[in-house]
Amino acid sequence: MLTVSEVLPEETRVVLQRLYAALEAEKERRREERRALGVLLRHRGFREVVCRFIDPGPRFAVGRKVLREAGVRLPRKLASRVIKRAEAIVLEEETGKRSFTKATNS
């Protein structure tokens, strides 16, 4: 039986290894995003802040604090996207209406 290194040229094998590494990194990032969303949705303090404040400032501050305390490691841009998504879900649950924001469509 032939092995991959015997069949494919070196350049192709290197490209496939890099693609596989990128795919694994993307899977890990998505797993971390799902975990962050779950942490936010289960946190009562975050839910209260979302329902109480219209201003996004306190929402983001509390959301980042909750994620930091839970040990979720996400870049700032991804963390803010997860916080917006969690806000949209909480508001939808509370009001029964779907808010058509960028966060719910992403």
Task: Supply database-style keywords.
mainly alpha; 106 residues; elongated; single chain; 0% strand
Radius of gyration from the alpha-carbon trace, in angstroms: 20 Å
Distance between the termini: 46 Å
- Give the helix tally: 6
Per DSSP E runs of 2 or more residues, the count of β-strands stands at: 0
- Main sheet characteristics: none
Structural class: mainly alpha
Tell me the strand percentage band: under 5%
Global geometry: elongated
Order of helices and strands: HHHHHH
Residue windows where pLDDT falls under 50 for at least 5 positions: 102-106
Oligomerization status of the protein chains: single chain
Overall average residue pLDDT: 86
What can you tell me about this protein's structure?
The chain has 106 residues and is mainly α. Helices cover 80% and strands 0% of the residues. It has six helices and no strands. The chain has helices at 4-7, 10-42, 44-52, 56-70, 76-95, 102-105. Helix 2 (10-42) crosses helix 5 (76-95) and helix 3 packs antiparallel against helix 4. The longest helix has 33 residues, at 10-42. The radius of gyration is 20 Å and the shape is elongated. It starts with a helix and ends with a helix.
Concise overview:
This protein has 6 helices and no strands.
Give the helices and strands, then pairings.
Elements: H1 4-7, H2 10-42, H3 44-52, H4 56-70, H5 76-95, H6 102-105
